[in-house]
Amino acid sequence: MRKSSLATLALALMASPVFAVNYSNEVLAIGVGARALGMGGAYVAIADDSTAVYWNPAGLTNIKHMEVDAVQQGRAYSGSDLNEVGSQYFFMSGGMTVPKVGSFGASIMRFGVDDIPQVTGVDSSGAPVQVGTFGTQDLALMGSYGVSVYPGVAFGATLKYLTGGTSGLQAVPGSVAGDASSTYYGADLGTLINFGKLTTTLEGLSFGLNAQDLVSSGVSWKNTPTDPTDTVDMNPKVGLAYSLPFAFLKANGSIVTFAFDADPKYGSNTLLHYGAEFWYKDTLAFRGGMRQFLGGLQSNETSLGASFRFFVLQVDYAFINYELTPMQYLSMAVRF
User: Fold this and answer.
1) What is the rounded radius of gyration, in angstroms, for the C-alpha atoms of the chain?
2) Structural domain tally of the chain?
3) Looking at residue 147, which CATH number applies to its domain?
4) Domain contains 54
5) Is residue 1 over pLDDT 60?
6) What is the three-class DSSP state of 10?
7) In this predicted structure, what is the pLDDT of residue 176?
8) What distance in Å separates the CA atoms of residue 42 and residue 207, rounded to the nearest whole number?
9) Which of 28, 140, 149, 306 has the smallest set of CB atoms within 10 Å of its CB?
10) Is residue 12 part of a domain?
11) How far apart are CA 176 and CA 128, in angstroms?
């Protein structure tokens, strides 16, 4: 990942007492799970595993037993390219359904970036004046509950706590006085409708809506010039998914699904997600996707992925062609 992109948030904090926040912290804009990421993040209307804690808590009702998902990704700073930084990403979630009670889920998520240059201005030649490097880290804890209110109709809610800040940041007169930190409390409300369970005419079609940050405390900062509390916009993330209901696919144990999601409040722009997935005999899967940034925010990003299931174990892989630095993710899920 490039310093010029990932350092924006931290540098804005040093340069200005208040800066706009539309996602509750950077960690929530990444997405979770190699399967969903391989589909370009088009997962709100699918969300049939414990990562539904993040994507759509109503999807927890799709969990039949108990399961645990985990993914870890890291990029070391080699020191050979001044435009690069090191990063670490970790996510773990678990979920289970209790008959006649509902479905429960919990997750922990951490994202950190190292080797960000701290710049205090420019010299007489116009070159940046760097006083050192620092790191940022975000930690998110989430708990969810989902319930089916009618065959094919489910609702869910996620409560979340986030904390983050900087480390190694040097004090600058008139700006930060050292490391800054933030805290946030929020709640999401989701719904998932499987139209195929309501009418056979719409077999294979599902709709999902996750009102992210429907309830928000705002991001409260400490150790900044004014210690502001920045507002967080509610993001009504909406999605559609369609699994082809053709008889020849079912006869061969195959499932082909197309999905589309929209993030209307991705910063000041809209982010669209497109994804497709092919499962063969509930054992092997291939998928692809794309993220499209409207308003010229950045170039489109494509993704590819695959999965393999063996008894209780599922392994998911995703390759994301991020505009600045391509990344790979590997998830493992165990279902009891």
Assistant:
1) 21
2) 1
3) 2.40.160.40
4) yes
5) no
6) helix
7) 64
8) 12
9) 149
10) yes
11) 18
- pTM to 2 decimal places: 0.85
Kindly tell me the burial class for residue 104, based on how many C-beta atoms sit within 10 Å of its own C-beta (0-12, 13-18, 19 or more): buried
Query: What one-character DSSP code corresponds to residue 2?
Result: B
Q: How far apart are CA 30 and CA 265, in angstroms?
A: 14
Mean pLDDT over 275-292 rounds to: 96
* CA-wise closest residue to 264 among 290, 287, 239, 228: 239
By CB atoms closer than 10 A (0-12, 13-18, 19+), residue 221 is: buried
Q: Give me the pLDDT at residue 25, please.
A: 58
Q: Residue-wise over 151-183: b if at least 16 C-beta within 10 A, else e?
A: ebbbbbbbebebebbbeebeebeebbeebbebb
Which are the contacts of 213, defined by CB distance < 8 A and separation ≥ 6?
A: 23, 24, 186, 187, 188, 232, 233, 234, 235
Q: CB under 8 Å to 34, separation ≥6 — which residues?
A: 71, 305, 316, 317, 318, 329, 330, 331
Residue 207 lies in a domain: yes
**Residue 332: Cβ-neighbour burial (10 angstroms; 0-12, 13-18, 19+):** middle
Q: How many C-beta atoms surround the C-beta of residue 135 within 10 A?
A: 20
CA–CA distance, 325 with 321 (Å, rounded to integer)? 7
Position with higher pLDDT, 312 vs 327:
312
pLDDT at 293 over 60: yes
pLDDT digits (tens, 9 = 90+) for 223-246: 877 888 888 889 999 999 999 999
What angle is formed at CA 1 by the lines to CA 91 and CA 47, rounded to 5 degrees? 35
β-pairing, 284-293 with 66-75?
A: unpaired
Domain that holds residue 307: 3-117+132-335
Residue 191 lies in a domain: yes
Nearest-angstrom CA–CA distance, 320 and 56:
22
Q: Quick one: pLDDT at residue 295?
A: 78
pLDDT at position 200 over 50:
yes
